[in-house]
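Re: [ENG-882] Designed sequences occasionally contain unexpected residues at chain ends

Forwarding the minimal case from QA. Structure tokens:
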């Protein structure tokens, strides 16, 4: 009876909340209203989002309500841009996973109740709450980890890109030609983004370093923004670009080496923990009979 009332109450609450959102839709923010009055068209993002699967279809009705709560946060939006995912898709996945975590324990409790083995109502209620919170937070953690891996991979590819540019400049190529030829040489996601940014600059008749600077801001990569600044100085001030690129490539290689070494040291420290636990268990296994005999004799 308690489970039935809980299910009916949950369904009634969701229905009333959906009706309230439909009757009083969230108002747009002040920044959005001001942006509509701005006659200058905004820059088109270089990182294009992708769609989703079943979770998006299930959680799409709740995206407007989550938007009204100020979600996703600015940091999450930047990570979503790096992973090429839409904010609406992300919010739909959060709502779908939270709803799944909330309903799944109730469904299991109904099955157990039908078999005559119902659990006390605090057990499924607490499990449902924990799964709902975990499901709501899981997309944020996943996007953050994916964005961090992509940024690290981009830094590694940027070092190779700078080396290619340095070689092409040494062979007598111009700056624009060296940038495009080096981007066409490499493969992978990072070089695809570089090619896309440079092609966008060529089609819009803007400077390549402007597109690279925008890409660096969207990816939150200071190294790419600094590269755009070096290229801009070379075009306007006539600075020595070959030496600057060689120095920056060496600095990136040193930084990548230090990061890899730090990750290896962290992995070595984590590997010591299972060995310590096994040794502690072995000691308990060996000395437990003797301790049991001593305590029994007392």
């Amino acid at each position: 009876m308690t489970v039935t009332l809980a299910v009916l109450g949950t369904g009634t609450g969701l229905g009333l909340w959906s009706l309230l959102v439909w009757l009083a839709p969230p108002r747009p923010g002040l920044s959005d209203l001001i942006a509509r009055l701005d006659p200058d068209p905004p820059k088109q993002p270089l990182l294009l989002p992708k769609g989703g699967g079943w979770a998006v279809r299930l959680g799409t009705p709740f995206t407007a309500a989550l938007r009204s709560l100020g979600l996703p946060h600015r940091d999450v939006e930047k990570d979503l841009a790096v992973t090429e995912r839409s904010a609406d898709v992300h919010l739909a996945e959060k709502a779908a996973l939270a709803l799944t975590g909330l309903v799944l324990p109730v469904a299991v409790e109904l099955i157990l109740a039908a078999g005559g083995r119902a659990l006390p109502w605090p057990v499924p209620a607490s499990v449902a709450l924990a799964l709902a919170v975990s499901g709501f937070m899981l997309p944020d953690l996943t996007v953050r980890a994916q964005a961090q891996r992509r940024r690290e991979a981009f830094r590694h590819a940027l070092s190779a890109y700078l080396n290619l540019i340095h070689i092409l400049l040494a062979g007598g190529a111009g700056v624009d030609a060296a940038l495009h030829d080096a981007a066409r040489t490499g493969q992978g996601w990072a070089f695809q983004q570089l090619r896309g940014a440079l092609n966008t600059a060529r089609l819009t008749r803007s400077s390549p370093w402007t597109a690279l600077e925008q890409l660096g801001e969207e990816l939150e990569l200071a190294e790419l923004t600094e590269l755009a600044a070096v290229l801009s100085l070379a075009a306007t001030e006539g600075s020595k670009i070959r030496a600057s690129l060689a120095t920056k490539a060496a600095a990136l290689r040193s930084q990548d080496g230090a990061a890899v070494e730090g990750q290896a040291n962290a992995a070595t420290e984590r590997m010591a923990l299972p060995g310590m636990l096994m040794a502690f268990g072995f000691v308990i296994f060996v000395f437990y009979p003797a301790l049991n005999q001593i305590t029994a004799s007392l």
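QA comment: On inspection the terminal residues look reasonable. The chain has two domains: 2-23+42-148, 153-255. Proposing we downgrade this to a documentation issue.
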